[in-house]
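Need tokens for this chain, all 310 residues.
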Amino acid sequence: MRILHGLRAMERPPRRAVVSVGVFDGVHLAHQRLIRATVAVAAQVRGTSVVVTFDPDPQTVLDPSHAQPRLMPLDARVRLLQELGVQWVWVIPFTPSFSRMTPEAFVQRILAQRLHAIRLVVGEQFAFGSGRRGDMPLLRRLGPRYGITVVALPHVRRGGLPVSSSRIRRLISDGRLSQARQLLGRPPELFGTVVRGLGRGRRLGFPTANIRLTSDVMPPQGVYAVTVEDHTRRQRWPGVMNLGVRPTFGAGALVCEVHLLKFSGRVLGRSVKIAVHAWLRHERCFPSWQLLSRQIGRDVARARRVLSAA
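Here are the structure tokens for all 310 residues:
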């Protein structure tokens, strides 16, 4: 897959571009439908599937006080787009200047002049351009002028409601992981970097990877069955995650610790993704470290059962 960053990066347009446009935070089921349709149409017309996305999220520029937290960082978003078969991803920096581009200018300058697009695949409620004034009627008027056929897909719905990033954020924050999973098409995920800890887990008999999270959306504090993935080295391990304040040792700042099952080696400094499969229990204070160690043993056994069935 070819990844381009910046407005000036598109020096030569792709061949017969079939384009989808959006932030695609979470790359959930509705996004996946759009992307798969884009890839399929590109194959039908012997063209190139292209996703135009933005970083940062436009809302952080247009209305920072009401900006929604991210479900995933840009690199994870791009990785999922690649897995869905996208050939080109063009990441456009969303700046105050870019936000003032009119819908007409976006179609002319970005879709027509830069990409030479022949198809545009979007959701039926797609809105774009300054003030989000661009809509489907405008696209259908402008498309023929520039040789662009607009393909509009209906909402993907689950539980009687449209699948959306904001809905998924609420579900994860409320701890309704199975419902979030149904909208994502995969377990909810956390992202971060493994950092040096205090070694308490090792003394308990369950060494942990301490992870400095970069995620904006997190489930409630507690103990979870998870899998941890290092994309760089293509490695994946099952584990038990504690997301909390470690009350047995004196409550402090929120920390994320994962005991990795079937693992030996070092993970310090690695960037990882944590897939959160199931809640196991609340975090609680134990009278002694021995009782905590026994409970962790029970957590590990339960996590093995949960993950073997996942």
